[in-house]
């Protein structure tokens, strides 16, 4: 058993319409699924990814309209990064961020890669990371109909950073339970040491970065915070093996959950970070034509019978990306 890398990251937005506008029109990602939170069908669940919604390229958002401001802190997924093809693409993004008045910092080198930190309109903590030197997990293919040229487009998820009060407790889970390996470390912008762990083929699409901050208060999540990070599992048979391993380690967990587009298992590590293990398939084209992903509200079969009442509670959101 070996996790293949990052599967998706799920965050919180207070405004699905504005979120959709930013991630499709400014960031150039494709909305591959417009669905609902299966545990609370009153809220949208939006999935942005590459042209086909390949695993490892999905940044997703739950809409919580009354979500307050995030107070950053400990016990959190404190940074989500997105991959671009090369260093030249980062220069393109600087110009694009100026055009759209996106808050960003200057390009820096970190862990042997060029990185561009920025924020979305809800203060989501983000970074673009260059794949110029990447030799690990391959990226996806940006959507050809994106407003961003394919050469500069986002090709997938980069490393997620965890900020925790006791790094060793998280490290033990990553290495002893999930099979990650330590591949190095670097200094944060504030000077603290950040440990880097990789799984599978490694590289930008398969890393978790762990930052220890002992004196920091616990994060109060809201709009712009991250709910969980998910890791790629080959198939349902392997997911069942992971479930057995996590049970043997006596971690409370969700058991196998059918999300229709993939099968999942959720558990919290000792510092409170929510991890998900998710299968690569069957994928987002299961119930929609590949050319029309994300245009209508997609519901898994077990919610289809409740469609009228579910749609009645959702604010209409026009997502016809083909004009």
Automatic annotation (TrEMBL):
Coiled coil: none annotated. Residues 5-131, 156-280 form the VOC domain. Gene3D superfamilies: 2,3-Dihydroxybiphenyl 1,2-Dioxygenase, domain 1. PROSITE patterns: VOC. InterPro entries: Extradiol_RC_dioxygenase, Glyas_Bleomycin-R_OHBP_Dase, Glyas_Fos-R_dOase_dom, VOC_core. It comes from the Bacteria. It holds the Pfam family Glyoxalase. This is Glyoxalase family protein. It comes from Sediminibacillus halophilus. The lineage of its organism: Bacteria, Bacillati, Bacillota, Bacilli, Bacillales.
